[in-house]
Amino acid sequence: FHSSFWSESIFFTLLIFSISLIVERKISLSKNLLIGLLLGLLFLQRSVAIYYVLIVIIYYFFIFKKNFLKPVISLLIGYFLIILFIGFHNFKRSDNFYIQPTQAKDGFYVYLAPNIFSLNEKISIKKANSILDEKLDQWIETNNLNLENEADRLIYYEYLQNKSFEIILDKPLNSFVVILKRTIHYLVLDPLRHVHYFYKFNLREQNSFYKTEIADNWILPRLIYSSLIYFTVLISFVHMIRNQDYDKFKFFLIFSLIYFVAVSSWTGNNRYHVPNLVFLAFFVSNGMVIISTYLRKIKIGSN
Predict the structure, then answer these.
(1) Lower CB count within 10 Å: N or C terminus of the chain?
(2) Is this model's pTM higher than 0.90 or not?
(3) What span, in angstroms and rounded, lies between the C-alpha atoms of 296 and 126?
């Protein structure tokens, strides 16, 4: 996964550095300032990390208890140094102070709106895209927007976000079905596509890999691979509950995983699931130890 050299690779690395510092559980100003800076850099790499700092703050509240104020303040100082730099940079360039990238505003429109709209109207996705594009062009013309101008582009992306919410909330059940399907696709691990096959196929044509026989042949191996990973994780969870091993760091990992799945699974793109392997790795390794210990006991018992 890491050799794919997408922005996820940098995100992957920053996440590992952050966790390695967080697990030390130190109150020191410098260490938590550094964690805050790393969390800010996480946001620079992927906009979905913007609220991840809240997961870390909640974790700090439980591990530091009465002494949580000092590490949280130093953490937030580091984080907001990055956030304010982004906002100030945007303001100097465009006279608009904002921190969220435009991709964070049009994501729902790109990934969800056409699929949900096609289901709502009982038309093909191609037809849905055509209708939405036509309405969008009319809206741009009516509001006399110049998309070469950044201020107008911000209005444009705000419209895309609002229009997406309107389509999603129009028929919530249809939206749930679409999001559920995309989430299932997102959760199926794909250890080869972005390491090898993307460079072989997708550089020539967008999403061309999924149109090939090779992609079809890899569906079953991917499902088996994913099932083994999740089964090992499940064993680790069950063992944790049975033994009442409620270590706070484990819950930090669980809520970190829930956070990143919740904010990106609706895209249906399993490439965005790659950073979550950092959290899953702790439980996979623990599950493998549990399985190997159990097999050794069976072997000793049979002897």
Answers:
(1) C
(2) no
(3) 56
